[in-house]
Amino acid sequence: MITLSINGRHVEVDEGTSLLDAAKAARIHVPTLCFYPGLPAHAVCRMCLVEIEGIPNPQPACRTLAKDGDVVTTDTEALTAFRKADAEWLLARHPNDCMRCEVNGACRLQRLVSENQWEDRWPKVPDGAVSASQELASDHTSPSIWRDLSKCIECGLCAEVCGESVQNQNVIGFADRGFDRRPVTVFDAPLSDTNCISCGQCTLVCPVGALIEAPHWHEVLHTLDARRRVSVVQVAPATRVAISEEFGLKPGTVSTGRLINALRMLGFDYVFDTNFAADLTIMEEGTELLSRLEAGTELPLFTSCCPGWVNWVELNRPDLLPHLSTTKSPQQMHGAIAKRGRFARSLGPDFADGTVEPYVVSVMPCTAKKDEAKRPGVSGDVDHVLTTRELARMIRSRGIPFGALAEDGQFDSPLGESTGAAQIFGASGGVMEAMVRTAAHFKGVEDDLPLEWEALRGVREGVKTATIPGVGTVAVCSGIAAAQRMLEDEDWREDYVAIEVMACVGGCLGGGGEPKSMDPLILQKRAKAIYGVDATAPRRRSYENTDVQALYASELGAPNSRAAHQLLHTHYAA
Ligand code: HC1
Ligand code: SF4
């Protein structure tokens, strides 16, 4: 341990602690813009400069390690004046459109300016000087991610997260120096012409509104307000454990009931559970795995419910496409059933003959789900996809007191029942664990196997494996970079019978559409909540879902039947 003084307070911290963390330990607030927990600190914003006795120039607290005996000051007049000037220069290059900005209320620059009452007092830098390629200052070409370089403060976090530090996609990097420095794509191409997989991790770390999810919530709100259409919403497993953070509830608070109540208050006619379709996915994908094992072809089977991963395969390794499960993701299964199944027909003759369709919205922790909903073959089954953050904006916009709502909301039937196996889809390893539970049943070895597979759990980046008696060895890749590393040699072809890949580290609970939490333990807290829901669920295996059983009995016959294939399977294209 080392001891130092910050603003006259003595602080004890471990060696190797940054001054920023040391200040935090002493509950002293040091402002930051470009710092993000878990990513390398580049100290470009200079907001966290502090003075250290004996060192002539102020030092960035995010990148300077605390030393024993340091005497640090964070709030001298000179530092305050510097931060103010720094912010004023940023504002000179920043549009004044907070009122309609998508990150209004969640923008770190806006918060800093508001807290300090800094002024926007310099003439605006002319537009042409903001980006050398003005036509790309605003890029709305991707169905999932919007860029607006006029709002960029050049913190570098997008390039960091898209690059080697996390996602290893390198779609965004920095060009030019000094005043012209800006984050660009390769050849300054629009995002839709790049290898962007739509994971949205860049939107999660962007401190301002320069990178956001393509917003759908305005249109959803207007459609609900008009009440001309029968509206249906489905909610993803990872959303219900993370949306609580948007409303000041403790991270890891499960808000399923509150969420259902809020969705009804927003005007949705039917509130359904994506988890119902996750159970159905397991029935189809589990059966697909067992058929492939029997036939000995196209093994290992890759899971396909993560659209970021599917995008990556299509863009980078089309040779792997035959390995992807043809089972649609739960989002798309749910949309197909809501639009064309028994539920839709029960809404009236116009719905039964297809003249009228219900309006289907999904709430997802994921930005790539927006482009998944537009894929050939499934497009139109889900009309709009909201991220967890967008739904929170809608709820706030309508003044719904989310935190004070009762936790008693119930999903509608019949597309609302689910098991614990479906809930764990939201965490890395959950799809595989859910599949193992049901595959073991199909193989008749269920009673000899545990229900929980600890080896497949955990939110850290990397590859997890487990050998399942009667099935084979399976692998789970937490994060797209882990999958890329695994695919570098050919061992995976022989080593595993099935591989789950989630493009975001930790799985959907770490998705690019989740709340922008800066708690370094946030993924663990969300995962704990997810596994808690499973542990207390009355049914924990997908085949036990009685609504799913009824669907097979009344409409689909058996898993992987012709009827099931028509409604629940898809294809991929290079
Ligand atoms: Fe996911 Fe899925 S688990 S992909 O991570 O298979 O987004 O939460 O909804 O579709 O169920 C996301 C989460 C989600 C689907 C399911
Ligand atoms: Fe990179 Fe993902 Fe952002 Fe695309 S969405 S630019 S792949 S971080």
How many runs of DSSP E, i.e. beta strands? 18
Strand content: 5-15%
Helical element count?
Answer: 22
Gap between N and C termini: 55 Å
Class per helix and strand makeup: alpha/beta
Indicate the low-confidence ranges by residue numbers. 128-135
What's the main sheet like?
A: 5 strands, mixed
Q: Into which percent range does the helicity of residues fall?
A: 25-40%
Based on Cα principal axes, name the global outline. globular
Hetero groups in this structure are: 2 iron/2 sulfur/5 carbonyl/2 water inorganic cluster, iron/sulfur cluster
Instruction: Average the pLDDT over all residues and give the rounded result.
Output: 95
Radius of gyration: 25 Å
Query: In order across it, which strands form the biggest sheet?
Result: 2-1-5-3-4
Provide a quick synopsis of the model.
The chain has 574 residues and is an alpha/beta fold. Helix 7 packs across helix 15 (388-397) and helix 9 packs across helix 17.
Structure overview:
- With 574 residues, the protein is α/β, with parallel strands linked by helices.
- 35% of the residues lie in helices and 13% in strands.
- The chain has 22 helices and 18 strands.
- It has helices at residues 19-25, 77-92, 108-116, 157-162, 201-205, 217-226, 239-246, 256-266, 274-295, 307-316, 330-340, 342-345, 349-352, 368-372, 388-397, 420-423, 430-442, 480-486, 491-495, 522-535, 546-556, 562-568; strands at 2-6, 9-13, 49-52, 59-60, 71-73, 138-139, 145-148, 172-175, 182-185, 211-213, 231-235, 270-273, 301-302, 359-364, 384-387, 462-468, 472-478, 498-502.
- The strands form five sheets. Strands 2-1-5-3-4 form a five-stranded mixed beta sheet, covered by helices on one side.
- α9 crosses α17 (430-442).
- The longest helix has 22 residues, at 274-295.
- The radius of gyration is 25 Å and the shape is globular.
- Mean pLDDT is 95; it is low at 128-135.
- Iron/sulfur cluster (SF4) binds next to α4 and α5.
- The site of iron/sulfur cluster has 14 residues, from α4 and α5.
